[in-house]
Design goal:
Low-confidence stretches: 1-25
CATH architecture of one domain: Sandwich
Distance between the termini: 70 Å
Structural class: mainly beta
Shape: globular
Mean pLDDT: 88
CATH class of one domain: Mainly Beta
CATH topology of one domain: Immunoglobulin-like
Number of helices: 10
Helix content: under 10%
Number of strands: 47
Strand content: over 45%
Largest sheet: 22 strands, antiparallel, barrel
Radius of gyration: 32 Å
């Protein structure tokens, strides 16, 4: 045994000596200059093939490199130029000139999260958008700039209100959980900024934003300045996402911020100003049409015009008219943006510091404003021997948002055309002698929110030699929001004598902080025709949430309303703390043979505190393979085919986006008191078997490049099956609980076809035209749901239909006798009720895509992005109620039934005295008449920029640009915004901006 120890030690010592002998081979220094078109080229990376030695050219294009082979092969790489190889036999000076060419797939490097990979060697599905596609667009959230740019990625903006959220779906919805139905959205992707994940979920709701932000949602990317983003990658298939385990089930969005470069110090300044307006607003009834409708409504009900019908009984002016839609949502929003950055570096250290200020107003009347101040810092250092690297990244933002309590488009735009002025001549809110419920009273219930966020990480690596290196990534993020809503006495009509004793303020605080620690061991090796890379790592993450809502009532004066300490009564309606812990180990192995055959294996074991003790840990993994058939002998000699790759992948990912403590017995305070004591009520039942959702992903793809990659085609097919659904399983009422959170044996299938085409249309002299097209044909379907017809989900889902399905009444016609809507009585019981909802309508996208064109001529450049979608969506019939109430409606509703107009589109008006008319109108809103198929083409973005020619000796570069967002919408749906999200909320704005940038 003792000798065996000696033998092991001797072998180990021998390996060390061998490694030292390898690293101490005779070295020599090679230097030179890299140029392009006779000018020095900076930023060129020079390395020795098969060695860890690497350097970069400075501003004068020069470099120096230590090599350790007799005939070393030098590689010269630059992201915008063709790669060059040079075999140095006895030279000590090597000068190289690089030529700019079409950027082929072999030059594109993709960020896959824990590693980087050449696009040509990638076995997974990764979509990339660079800074060039993001810059100059008048958007506050980068998601707005991504719409229509990537296949398989559907992005919908929820409203035009600053600070609002986005619905992001990467290859469809895998989970049955949606925020609107359950309060939890199980379909959100994972967002990672510079290796630090943003908080995934905080299910605490302060209850203040439901009427101003759809689903009370904001976007975590609101805090990220789009100008700070260098690139954004979306990981879609199993091969790309499996290394993130449970976090990658719904796709991963990787954001890389801009870094400093190894060249002279550079100062960048950019500013822009823009204006935005609402588009696709329906034309409203004029005063004459409105008055006729109202009078007929009372006549149809057999009721004389009552004394409180002020709009038509002569109390309000019969001739005065106001376009309230224009007044409340027809204003102009302003956008301003200022960004300043300094970057540079010398030797082995690079840095970048950015700062910016952004402001945005709304289209609503009033001084509502969103502001964001942001700052970014990046520092990278490499040791003299280039073995040790360390980088620090941090982005911080302070957002301040002041909004009305309600989206004015929801109710205020429907005021009667002859409603009185909103304010008196003295500037007071006008109640018109108690005949007018002035909407500006409730509008004084101002909502404001301040958000502070920080995302920082330190990433270090050390090369151990012989292909081994170790990495350590540590990150910290905070996302804290402080919101408040005031309820002043001005809410009420002064005649009600409601004073400051009834005024109140509601203050909410949501504190989120998380940290992550990820050690990693990497290995890379090339010999002959073989190349290996592998990594093994661990992930430890903790997220804490501390949330509270305070309610202050009974103030001595409204002047003190924002100071909750002045309230005579302070209560705590809700408070919530949570702790989320997550741990994982992961590994990846990649093998390539002869630069044409690649296989990639990934595995991960995850543990989440969101699950019961019996199901806390789970294993996930994937395998991906690729064949570069264009490298085969016969095809390699074909000039017309420059690239060809087949790839496929299969794997399993999980999902824990369910909120914290869902499997526990939990209790909540009753919020009141009895006998001086507050009570508690049970909320959930314990379920130790509560575990992971699973998504099995398959993909097959073909990638082609023709004519020296002037034309690139990608075709991909994906097929994902999600099972073990985390939903509330219905319980008997005798248990005291409507449901128990559990894993349901239901499965959801998402499959589809993705196509992307990139082409260099023309490149001649100073003229260049490139074009790209992406197209997605998705399908989402519920494949299995045991005992669905007997569950509470029977009206929400149907096997064989999309999970975004609604059950509706079957609209038949307008009764020629009564003039009311009629519907199919499915069970023939003579009553129309929920049992008659037999029509299944899928609210879905049939297909979607985008077309981007970029034209450059000398110093001019023009970019145009078209977004198109064919979808089934709610229409105007779902948004407006009964015809005849004291509320204006779109002019389309003038086509109502009368004896002289029996073929009308809508039923006869009713002032609300006819129960039959009101019920028929409600059924109509929830019938198949409320859903339409629609095709839409949107001019999503158009940007024209001009680089101002300056003297070659000057150090300043300047550019001016004009950009438009949502410029034009062409649709067969003419009654409003086809990008419908939730009834009544204002739609995304058309924004036109102007700006300029300076670089010194």
């Amino acid at each position: 045994m003792k000798n065996s120890y000696y033998n092991i030690g001797g072998i180990f010592f021998g390996l060390i000596l061998t490694a030292l002998s390898i690293n101490t081979k005779a070295q020599r220094t090679i230097s030179g200059t890299v140029t392009t078109s006779g000018k020095p080229l900076s930023g060129v990376v020079i390395s020795q093939e098969g060695s860890d030695q690497v350097t970069m050219t400075g501003s004068n294009g020069t470099y120096t490199l230590q090599v350790s082979a007799e005939n070393p092969i030098l590689l010269f790489r630059h992201p915008d130029y063709a790669e060059e190889k040079f075999t140095a036999t006895h030279q000590t000076v090597v000068n190289i000139s690089l030529e700019q060419k079409v950027k082929g797939i072999e030059e594109v490097i993709l960020n896959a999260g824990y590693y980087k990979v050449k696009d040509r060697e990638s076995t997974g599905s990764i979509a990339k958008v660079s800074a060039k596609d993001i810059e100059n667009q008048p958007v506050n959230n980068v998601l707005s700039a991504l719409q229509g740019r990537m296949p398989g990625v559907s992005i919908t903006q929820n409203s035009s209100v600053p600070g609002g959220g986005f619905d992001v779906q990467i290859r469809g919805k895998n989970s049955l959980r949606s925020y609107a139905a359950t309060g939890y959205d199980g379909n959100k992707p994972l967002y990672i900024v510079d290796s630090v994940p943003l908080p995934q979920i905080n299910d605490f709701n302060t209850g203040m934003t439901g009427n101003i932000l759809p689903y009370s949602e904001t976007s975590p990317l609101n805090s990220i300045n789009p100008d700070d983003i260098e690139s954004l990658e979306v990981l879609k298939d199993a091969d790309a996402t499996a290394i993130y385990g449970s976090k990658g089930a719904n796709g991963v969005v990787l954001i890389t911020t801009k870094k400093g470069k190894k060249e002279k110090t550079e100062v960048n300044f950019r500013t822009s100003y823009g204006v935005g307006t609402m588009t696709n607003l329906p034309k409203m009834m004029n005063l004459e049409e409105y008055t006729a409708m109202r009078k007929l409504a009372f006549a149809n009900d057999g009721v004389a015009v009552p004394s409180n019908a002020y709009d038509i009984n002569g109390v309000w002016s019969p001739t005065k008219t106001t376009d309230w839609q224009k007044y409340f949502i027809g204003n102009t929003a302003e956008f301003s943006d200022v960004q300043l950055g300094v970057s540079g570096g010398s030797g082995n250290t690079q840095f970048s510091i950015t700062g910016g200020h952004n402001e945005e107003t709304t289209v609503f009347p009033g001084s509502y404003r969103y502001t964001r101040n942001n700052m970014g810092i990046n520092i990278n250092h490499t040791s003299a021997d280039r073995k040790f690297q360390i980088g620090f990244n941090a982005t911080a933002a302070l957002q301040d948002n002041v909004l009305p309590p309600t989206d004015f488009n929801l109710v205020y735009a429907s005021l009667a055309p002859n409603a009185p002025d909103l304010y008196t001549s003295s500037g007071m809110i006008n109640w018109e002698n108690n005949t007018f419920t002035n909407p500006m009273g409730p509008a004084t219930q101002t909502y404001s929110v301040q958000t502070k966020s920080l995302n920082a990480n330190i990433n270090s690596s050390y090369s151990l030699g012989s292909g081994f290196s170790i990495n350590l990534n540590s990150g910290y993020s905070t996302y804290n929001s402080y919101d408040q809503k005031i309820f002043p006495k001005t809410t009420y009509n002064p005649s009600s004598n409601i004073g400051s004793s009834n005024s109140s303020i509601r203050k909410g605080q949501k504190m989120n902080q998380s940290w992550i620690l990820e050690p990693q061991l990497n290995y890379e090796k090339k010999f002959g025709k073989h190349q290996f890379s592998a990594l093994i790592g661990a992930s430890l993450q903790e997220q804490k949430s501390d949330n509270i809502v305070l309610l202050g009532r009974n103030f001595p004066s409204d002047e003190m309303l924002t100071n909750i300490a002045a309230a005579a009564s302070i209560t705590v309606p809700s408070a919530y703390e949570s702790l989320y812990r997550y741990q994982a180990v992961y590994a990846r192995f990649n093998y390539g043979y002869n630069k044409r055959y690649f296989i990639n294996l990934t595995g991960r074991r995850d543990g989440s505190s969101r699950f019961g003790s019996e199901r806390r840990y789970a294993n996930f993994g994937a395998v991906g393979a690729a064949w570069l058939f264009s490298e085969e002998g016969l095809l390699k000699r074909q000039a017309w085919l420059s690239f060809g790759k087949l790839r496929t992948s299969y794997g399993v990912a999980g999902n824990d986006q369910i909120g914290d403590y869902q499997y526990y017995d939990t209790y909540a305070s009753t919020g009141g008191s009895y006998g001086g004591y507050s009570g508690i009520i049970p909320q959930r039942l314990y379920n130790k078997n509560f575990g992971w959702e699973l998504t099995r992903k398959f993909e097959a793809a073909l990638e082609l490049g023709f004519l020296k990659q002037r034309l690139n085609l990608n075709f991909g097919y994906y097929h994902n099956i999600s099972s073990n659904q985390l939903v509330g399983v219905p319980m008997p009422a005798t248990t005291g609980f409507a449901s128990i959170q559990a894993n349901l044996d239901a499965t959801v299938r998402n499959r589809g076809l993705e196509v992307s085409i990139q082409s260099l249309m023309i490149q001649k002299g100073d003229f260049k035209w490139t074009s790209s097209l992406n197209f997605t044909l998705p399908e989402n379907k519920l494949m299995k749901f045991p005992n669905l017809d007997k569950s509470t989900y029977a009206n929400r889902f149907e096997v064989g239909k999309s999970t975004n399905m609604v059950k509706l009444y079957l609209y038949t016609s307008i009764d020629p006798v009564t003039g009311l809507y009629t519907f199919y009585d499915a069970n023939k019981d003579g009553i129309i009720n929920t049992a008659d909802r037999i029509v299944s309508k899928e609210i879905k996208e049939y297909w979607y895509g985008g077309l981007q064109n970029s034209i450059q001529y000398k110093n001019w450049s023009f970019d145009l992005l078209l977004q198109f979608v064919s979808q089934s969506q709610y229409n105007i019939n779902s948004m407006y109620g009964n015809i005849g109430y004291m509320a204006n409606m779109p002019s389309i509703y003038t086509d109502y039934w009368t004896p002289d107009n029996p073929d009308a589109q809508f039923q006869k008006p009713s002032a609300g005295y006819s129960t039959a008319a009101s019920m028929a109108s409600s059924f109509f809103n929830n019938s198949d008449a409320a859903v339409s198929d629609m095709f839409t083409v949107r001019v999503k973005n158009a940007t024209l920029s001009y680089h101002i020619p300056l003297s070659e000796n000057t150090k300043v570069r300047a550019k001016v640009f004009m950009s438009g967002q949502n410029l034009l919408v062409l649709s067969d749906y003419k009654q409003g915004n086809p990008e419908f999200t939730q009834a009544g909320y204002s739609s995304p704005l058309r924004v036109i901006s102007f700006g300029f940038s300076l670089t010194y």
